[in-house]
Structure to design on (376 residues):
DNA sequence: ATATTTATGAGAGTAGACTCCTATTTGAGA
DNA sequence: TCTCAAATAGGAGTCTACTCTCATAAATAT
């Protein structure tokens, strides 16, 4: 990785970090892109060079790893069991530091309505991808009602726990999600 | 109802109707408030007098009627069965015209991300209320994980069907939701 | 009919997201 | 060290949601 690339990655991360901090401190809409630029000590145009739109500053990107894990889960597992498997694997593959950072960001996203709203586009496309993956695993059409219903239930349950977790960081989120999903395995 | 009030209601409805038409025909972002004003033959400032923000042109909530029905569902029904019951009752109480109008608006809301985002606050408070109601019916604490998980699964499934319905208005949404929820009754 | 209250139109003005251009800096390669 | 390509700063400019003001018109009350 060249120096140039490293610098770019660093700048990008810096901008995003400062943006999230400001969003948390004073709200998403109340924060202007100019303020983000100032905080990161770059020009406003530079912010837009890295992030095509303000809402893109909020992207969450550990989705690919989850999808990968879901894809490569043992073929004999049903959809719900596969999701449980993938989640456990993902949790295990993350360093404690990564986990804390991820939790912080997710918490921020879930507790600040504007951020959640801003990331809705990503969330929906992520849900669609999960659905496609589950369909492929089961050898069914993604339009299949059964696939849709299972995906809906799984995502709904995960979100429900997630929301509680965001409100009470003391609880063991991953364990709760696992337990909640276990109850859904009757659907497999 | 005075003449003045009737006129206001008429103007308001006219603005909203024209707005929805334009949003449907050329997209939400691509439609300016000025165009809406022009189509409704009012001044731009008049649009804002009736609707504080562009996104408010789309909002609506028939939530109260559903919650009422849920509250008064037979006590012996489990949570999922109670939700099914309430939904059936709600569907029966709406005229075909109301149903079509509602669907049109929901469709728009679900397919345009920023509209969905705008109504997120209402949606989350609605989910919280459903959870409270289900908890009361079951004689449990709203913080109970079981209540949380059931609510999450139910809401997740309904949204999943809703999204598909929005994409394919030809399908029988209420029936699909009922079928999907039937599969969840094992959790009751 | 007159006075008062309320809704509207018209337009000027603000703010902030986003684009585009140019001069300047900075890393990469010879 | 010198040269070239890429990245940035700085700033001017656009677009549109949204606000404010005031004069006019329409509805209501007396």
């Amino acid at each position: 990785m060249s120096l140039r690339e490293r610098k770019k990655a660093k700048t990008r991360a810096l901008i995003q970090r400062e943006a999230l901090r400001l969003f948390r401190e004073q709200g998403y809409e109340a924060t202007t892109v100019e303020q983000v630029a100032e905080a990161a000590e770059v020009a406003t145009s530079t912010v837009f060079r890295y992030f095509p739109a303000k809402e893109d500053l909020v992207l969450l990107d550990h989705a690919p790893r989850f999808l990968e894990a879901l894809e490569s889960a043992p073929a004999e597992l049903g959809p719900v069991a596969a999701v449980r498997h993938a989640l456990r694997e993902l949790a295990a593959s993350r360093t404690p530091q990564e986990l804390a950072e991820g939790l912080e960001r997710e918490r921020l996203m879930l507790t600040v309505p504007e951020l959640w709203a801003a990331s809705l586009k990503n969330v929906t496309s992520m849900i669609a991808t999960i659905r496609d993956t589950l369909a492929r695993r089961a050898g069914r059409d993604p339009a299949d009602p059964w696939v849709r219903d299972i995906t809906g239930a799984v995502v709904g349950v995960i979100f429900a726990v997630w929301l509680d977790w965001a409100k009470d960081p003391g609880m063991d989120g991953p364990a709760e999600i696992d337990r909640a999903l276990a109850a859904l395995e009757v659907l497999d």
The CA atoms of residues 88 and 175 of chain B lie 9 Å apart. Chain B touches chain A through 30 residues (CB under 8 Å). Chain B has two domains: 3-54, 63-187.
